[in-house]
Design a protein that fits this description.
Order of helices and strands: HEEEEEHEEHHEHEH
Strand order of the largest sheet: 7-6-8-5-9
CATH class: Alpha Beta
Structural class: alpha/beta
Number of helices: 6
Strand content: 5-15%
Largest sheet: 5 strands, mixed
Number of strands: 9
CATH architecture: 3-Layer(aba) Sandwich
CATH topology: Lysozyme-like
Helix content: 25-40%
Radius of gyration: 19 Å
CATH superfamily: Peptidoglycan recognition protein-like
Length: about 250
């Protein structure tokens, strides 16, 4: 075996990683995103933040102009990470739109690069839930759009851009055409959905898959996951996502 052969073999693992990331980027670009978005010239810096500090479900309250304080006293979702609670005024959210990445590998940073490559201003989703291939399985990554309470870029082509302007975009990493997200991903999604529904008073009927949005021509979030959303998750949310209002 020659020295050049040894060097070539040593480089193979690194090459495989690079090719896998390139494949993920390319698949993301052509994945569930099927409508062109408006190109924005001002490109703010990406801020994908994680914070282990949590807010007790028994004590935390928030208030918004014109709304009564709400506590998160709900044993099924536990403590809420502080990063989920923006410090700026909320947008008038009306929808939650669930996506899959249609890729095996990915993370918020990977998708951010892919979205910028398409000419978007930053990561189009508000949240990304990792699958262990690019980020820890079940980890909820919070995008800078959520921190800034900024419209989404994940559901283009809808009338009046309704589902971008007033829709919270959540992407689960993976291709769920035939299989479901991991148990940890589903647990994180459920917790996040209950929190968002209660905080922004979004009914279970307005928690939709990408394919449900008017004008969307896509199979996202995958056939298997879509069935789960309609037959298991949404009925469960109808039972459990109860808004607790202080009187």
């Amino acid at each position: 075996m020659t020295d050049s052969t040894v060097v070539a073999k040593a480089k193979l693992p690194r090459l495989r990683v690079v090719l896998r990331m390139a494949s993920a980027l390319a698949a993301t670009i052509i994945g569930c995103q099927n409508k062109p978005e408006v190109v924005v010239s001002n490109l703010p810096t990406l801020s994908i933040l994680q914070n282990n500090n949590t807010v007790s479900r028994h004590h935390h309250r928030y208030s918004q102009p014109g709304r009564r304080a709400v506590s998160y006293e709900h044993p099924s979702i536990g403590d809420i990470p502080r990063i989920w609670i923006p410090s700026v005024p909320a947008r008038p959210w009306r929808w939650i739109v669930i996506h899959h990445s249609a890729t095996h590998f990915g993370s918020a940073r990977v998708f951010d690069r892919a979205h910028r490559a398409r000419g978007w201003d930053e990561l189009g989703y508000h949240f990304v839930i990792d699958n262990g291939h690019g980020g820890r399985d079940g980890r909820v990554e919070v995008g800078s759009r959520w921190i800034k309470q900024k419209w989404g870029a994940h559901c283009g082509g809808t009338p009046n851009n309704e589902y971008n302007n007033y829709g919270i975009g959540i992407c689960l990493v993976g291709d769920f055409s035939k299989t479901l997200p991991s148990n940890r991903q589903l647990q994180s999604l459920r917790k996040l959905l209950i929190f968002l529904m209660r905080r922004y008073r979004i009914p279970p009927s307005n928690v939709i898959g990408h394919r449900d949005a008017p004008g969307a021509s896509t199979a996202c979030p995958g056939n298997a996951f879509y069935r789960y959303l309609n037959t298991v998750l949404r009925p469960e949310l109808s039972r459990e996502a109860v808004l607790v209002t202080n009187r």
